[in-house]
Design a protein that fits this description.
Number of strands: 0
Distance between the termini: 125 Å
Order of helices and strands: HHHHHHHHHHHHHHHHHHHHH
Structural class: mainly alpha
């Protein structure tokens, strides 16, 4: 077939050359002025005949070109249509089949570009040929879409465990009044030192990238770029929905759903949102952007348009959830979640600006920045609400035993955790206090530093909060009728405040001077307790012979010894239910009490042993020391029950 085609072509070309040469000679002769009329007429007739032969040759050439195109189209159609009845995918059948198929498609593409000239009698045939080529090409494009989807679905790669187990702030937003068993050395917030780290992940097997590019090149060259983009974007959106919906377990919630949620459920959803936001932007969308650059990078503006179309729905879903949290009630328990969300967005700003840098993605970029601002405003308003709540807390019930008030535990644990967000809060609160925030005191220098209340906005506000708490405690202490118990209550609560400050980042904000002053207050309450509780009791043990009494001295000693025992028993009965939760503080107060009371009693008995018989000495000094050890244990006891 090919040899016959070559012979025909060769003969046809020889004929054309002969006619062209003859026509050139005739035209040259006709240009001569020495010809007679008869010869000129003969040459003119010959020129007309040669022109007619040239037209016939051109028509014959068109005929040959159309026939050749028809043969080529049939051959390409045969290769393309052979796959329509097969379930096996072309790209699963080996590179030879892929190459043959793509060459057949390119052949059809080239035939579609044949010039159409209806004035030579072949126009109808050409039109039929082009229509047939379009039909075959459409079939091929549908097939390539199927192949594209198949490759994308079967080349997906799952993430490593280091991505699916991203720290999700599970402990960051917990503020409990029962957290005193936690190690003081541990922080509620884990350090996220990897926030700026870039993750290069392959969302699909790198080996199929050339396959995807070859399909893209053929479909774009065939003006089926829109169909390619729709198929590619559709497949990638499906994978994104599958991953974020099932693996990250992120539910689709409307703003109304979020606003109606109880705090426990909302807090759980926020943790999932934080994890999803990190993985989506830093890992998944970064990988998606890389994939789009590899496949569509050569096609200009289409690349970012397709990427934005793929990621837009999920980004809006994440942003809408964040907006719903930001516009919700400013409950104090929400503050740490708001700060976590704000910090996550701050960490991701550069990633967002890089992923969505083109103009077509401007709305996503702007919405992201706006959400960060809204979360910051919500966090600031929530902190102010917390301050107001501390100032207005006015429960009138007595706290049994003078122990640590729930409000004290809550406020100190709250601001202890809050101090860990110092840098973020300084940015948010600087307008509340005026001026730019000062740098935080470094932890290694915090031991000796004593910052003034205005060193930074956070320090200013935390000083304000603890002052409000102290004022509340002072008012609450007045509810106790027993003045000694008032001092125990204030001693317990102020000591708790100092311990929480000393062993946390609060120290860098409240300062060592604040700690020193409040330890002095604790000691003052200890001294006041001793004076109000034991002064009158110890006065019974004084040996004042000039007391003015007419009774014999021996009788006075007996009465004083008896009075001391009765007073001690009353104090024992009253103060064993009192509570000093801190073991060291409790032991120190017991030791101080023992040193004053037991030693005074031992000296009194020793000096007056000749005047007091055993029946008048109800308790030994060792007995009293044991009884003192029972004080402030939080359980009511009586001396009589203990002696049994």
């Amino acid at each position: 077939m090919e040899e016959e085609k070559a012979i025909i072509t060769q003969n046809h070309e020889g004929e054309e050359h002969m006619v062209a040469a003859a026509a050139h000679i005739v035209k040259a002769l006709l240009a001569s002025k020495n010809l007679n009329e008869d010869f000129r007429k003969i040459l003119f007739d010959l020129d007309t005949h040669l022109s007619t032969m040239t037209i016939l040759n051109e028509r014959k050439e068109d005929e040959l070109n159309l026939n050749e195109a028809e043969l080529r189209l049939k051959c390409a159609e045969k290769k393309i249509m052979s796959w329509e009845s097969k379930q096996l995918k072309i790209w699963d059948s080996g590179s030879k089949h892929v190459s043959d198929y793509l060459q057949a498609v390119e052949e059809v593409q080239s035939l579609r570009s044949l010039p159409l000239d209806g004035g030579r009698g072949g126009g109808d045939k050409q039109r039929r040929l082009l229509r047939q080529a379009d039909s075959i090409l459409q079939i091929a494009m549908v097939r390539l879409e199927e192949e594209l989807f198949h490759i994308l679905q079967h080349s997906k790669q799952s993430f490593g465990s280091e991505f699916t187990s991203f720290h999700s702030c599970d402990d960051e937003s917990i503020v409990s009044v029962e957290d005193d068993d936690l190690s003081e050395e541990s922080s509620r917030r884990e350090s996220n030192g990897d926030e700026s780290k870039e993750y290069a992940v392959d969302l699909i097997n790198p080996e199929v990238i050339p396959h995807l590019k070859s399909i893209a090149n053929v479909m774009f060259a065939s003006n089926y770029d829109q169909e390619f983009c729709q198929a590619f974007v559709g497949a990638r959106k499906g994978v994104l929905d599958e991953y974020l919906g099932s693996i990250l377990e992120l539910e689709k919630l409307s703003i109304e759903d979020v606003l109606r949620m109880e705090w426990g459920n909302l807090n759980y959803e926020i943790k999932k949102w934080i994890r999803a936001m990190k993985i989506t932007i830093r890992v998944y969308l970064a990988g998606e952007k890389r994939l789009y650059d590899q496949v569509l990078g050569e096609f200009g503006a289409i690349n970012p348009v397709c990427f934005v179309e793929t990621s837009k729905a999920w980004m809006l879903r994440l942003l809408n959830f964040g907006e719903a949290v930001a516009i919700g009630q400013h409950l104090p328990e929400k503050l740490f979640s708001l700060l976590n969300m704000y910090e996550v967005l701050a960490d991701l700003l550069l990633h967002i600006d890089a992923l969505f840098c083109e103009e077509v993605a401007a709305s996503i970029r702007i919405d992201f920045h706006e959400l960060q601002r809204e979360l910051g405003d919500a966090a600031k308003a929530t902190f102010m609400e917390f301050r107001t709540a501390v100032a207005s807390y006015a429960a009138l019930s007595l706290f049994p035993g003078g122990g640590i008030l729930h409000l004290t535990r809550y406020v100190m644990n709250y601001i202890k955790t809050l101090a860990e967000y110092g840098n973020t809060l300084n940015l948010l609160l600087k307008d509340q206090n005026g001026g730019e925030p000062e740098p935080l005191i470094e932890e290694e220098n915090a031991q000796n530093a004593a910052p003034s209340p205005g060193i930074c906005p956070v320090a200013h506000h935390l000083h304000s909060v603890v002052s409000l708490l102290e004022s509340n405690l002072e008012s609450r202490s007045k509810l106790y009728k027993d003045i000694s118990l008032q001092h125990i209550f204030l001693m317990n609560n102020i000591h708790y405040m100092v311990q929480k400050t000393r062993k946390s980042e609060l120290r860098g904000f409240l300062g060592d001077e604040w700690i020193r002053k409040h330890m002095v207050k604790v000691q003052q309450h200890v001294t006041s307790y001793e004076r109000t509780t034991w002064s009158s009791v110890l006065s019974l043990l004084r040996e004042d012979r000039n007391s003015g009494s007419n009774s014999p001295w021996k009788m006075i000693l007996k009465e004083r010894c008896r009075g001391f025992c009765i007073a001690f028993e009353e104090i024992y009965k009253n103060q064993t239910p009192w509570s000093i939760p801190d073991p060291q503080l409790r032991d120190n107060l017991r030791i101080l009490t023992s040193q004053k009371v037991v030693q005074a009693y031992r000296g009194f008995i020793g000096r007056n042993s000749e005047n007091l018989s055993e029946k008048h000495i109800k308790y030994s000094a060792d007995d009293l020391e044991n009884y003192v050890h029972d004080l402030f244990g939080g359980s009511p006891k009586s001396v009589n029950n203990r002696r049994k």
